[in-house]
Amino acid sequence: MALVPSSGTAAGGIVVELDVQNFAAMTVGNIEMFSTSTNPDVNSKAYGTVIQYTKTGDNIFTGKAKVTFTLPESLVGGSMANLVFQIRFGAVIRTTFKSFEYFLEPIGPAIIQLSTITSIMISERPSFLIDLTNLPLVKDLTATNLLTASFKGNSVTATIFFTSTRALTRASFQMPSLSGLTVGTPFDLKVFYTPHAIARAGTKLIAVKADPSPSVISMFPARGLSKTRHTIQARVQFLYSGGSYTVTLVTANGKSVTLPQVGSPVLTTNPSCLSASKFCTSVMLSFTTPGENPDGVLVGGAADIRICAGSSCGVSTFNYVGQDSYIVDSINVTSAKSTVDTYVAINVRNLPNIDQASNVIVRLGSVSCIVRSFVRPVVPSTIWTLTTIFPANSIPAVVHGRQADGSAAGAPFSFTFTEERGGNSFSC
Q: What is the pLDDT, as a whole number, of residue 276?
């Protein structure tokens, strides 16, 4: 036995249909319909009006039939009720029952309980979720035209209904193109059940903020030697365009070089956003610097890295360490007798990336000391340890790297020879 619909407004007056079997009647006058409350304290009956009785079989006692009737008003507002159907043939009464849900119609405007947007950037047009109460039940979740959002006179219907009950309706919207927004001046977001019209809309105030400038939120490495090619990874936010990007290096002396990119950009969208946009997406790029600092291998200093989508750019700094910036941190011995060879370990920062000991020499005056071995630095340190022999009767001068373009680049240090017979000592 099917009842359609199985719920309706507590005000009554809804036309419903009941499919029955073995519920014979000769005319509409033989049928009576009334409702009772499921509340045991309410003993009243509310009578409905039977409109039509239609047989669908030949046998009036065993065949099927359809009864159409108008519901009475609910006895107890929004509540469950028992609908009672009776057929009378003289003193014979046959009765059947069916449950029915009475509900109260919403009164007044919809209420916005939750919105995933409370502010927007002036050029941002996001998707957003919204929860509403005091709204009629939407039974068909594909009927997105039943919910409307209005922004400064621009109206759109919902994109998706996620759920709708008499207690709560959740839907998503895509904000349309808007004009006339001003930073610092909020506007009303109005959402309403479309058949109710905008006069019954729920309202939320949306703030308008200035668009943020693109910013580089991470970059590695951020420093390196001037004579070395570097592969750099950088992540930029507020730059997403869905298109191409350019990366430019601008040196301390103003030289500009477009840097080649390695691989493809990697976009990461905040999972709380319903769609990708520059406000929700960061971009990871990999790129390489030239083989040497465009200002010269002997020059250090800060260079700008500019990552752009069109004219919108995020900027970070890469610090070049010039090849003339050799620094002697320490020597394991600082004096020795002048008549004997002395084994020495020298700690030097910022040497080029040498692959064999013969690429670096230690010069004492006019005497070149062969580097017997070296120990590479362990990142992030840049300190190399060189092992050499200072020959007898020599005076110290500078550390000198052959890879420094033949220049006299070097780092001075001091070492004292003491004559074996007493005499003078000297240092440089």
A: 64
